[in-house]
Specification:
CATH class: Alpha Beta
Helix content: 25-40%
Number of domains: 1
Oligomer: single chain
CATH superfamily: Gcn5-related N-acetyltransferase (GNAT)
Distance between the termini: 41 Å
Number of helices: 4
Radius of gyration: 16 Å
Order of helices and strands: EHHEEEHEHEE
Strand order of the largest sheet: 1-2-3-4-5-7-6
Strand content: 25-35%
Bound molecules: coenzyme A
Shape: globular
Mean pLDDT: 92
Low-confidence stretches: none
Number of strands: 7
Structural class: alpha+beta
Length: 158
């Protein structure tokens, strides 16, 4: 990579920023790559326009390689989606995104966080546990695609 004067530019690190309706196309590409049963463009658009949730995107050299969608209602945050491009996993990006979600939701007044995750999703469960999430329940055959159980997790946001 070079700058306009032709000088080499050092590789930029990952940048995490709030996304808006103009970013939905890129989010959808990731969504399709990461989830068999995924959200529609309309769901993302309506949610963002109505302020129902926030989306943070992680870009590397301008390319979106991860995102997290979450809501904050009063003192409760809920993670709806968190995904990293398959070719960019195990580089700490999921952890950076989750850390950013917790910081943003704390700033928005959240004191506890919730999420559900497929019981077979070991990478995600491992990541959530590292950030202080503990299992508080199970929803039997919750997911429409695999009929798998959902594990419900909660954490304090100090
Ligand atoms: C879950 C996911 C977001 C993790 O992203 P990632 O960028 O690979 O995660 P990181 O590199 O930041 O890893 C952080 C921690 O997560 C856990 N982890 C990540 N991938 C793992 C794997 N394949 N197996 C076990 N633990 C894993 C580890 O504890 C890891 O810490 P470590 O590297 O010190 O061992 C990613 O695997 C993904 O997008 N999966 C598909 C979408 C999904 O299932 N999302 C969750 C929906 S609830």
């Amino acid at each position: 990579m070079t700058d306009p004067g032709g000088l080499p530019v050092p590789d930029a690190g990952p940048v995490i920023e709030p996304l808006g309706p103009g970013d939905i196309r890129e989010v959808m590409e990731l969504e399709r790559l990461c989830f068999a049963y995924h959200w529609t463009e309309e769901q993302f658009r309506l949610g963002l326009e109505r302020g129902a949730y926030h989306i943070l995107g992680l870009r590397l050299g301008g390319r979106m390689v991860g995102y997290a969608a979450f809501s904050v209602i009063q003192d409760e945050m809920e993670i709806m989606n968190l995904a990293v491009h398959p070719e960019f996993r195990r580089r700490g990006f999921g952890a950076r995104l989750l850390d950013a979600v917790l910081r943003h939701s704390r700033a928005a007044g959240a004191q506890q966080g919730f999420l559900d995750v497929k019981e077979s999703n070991i990478p995600a469960i491992d990541l959530y546990r590292k950030f202080g999430f503990n299992q508080i329940g199970v929803r039997k055959r919750y997911y429409p695609d695999t009929r798998e159980d959902a594990l419900l997790f909660r954490c304090d946001i100090p």
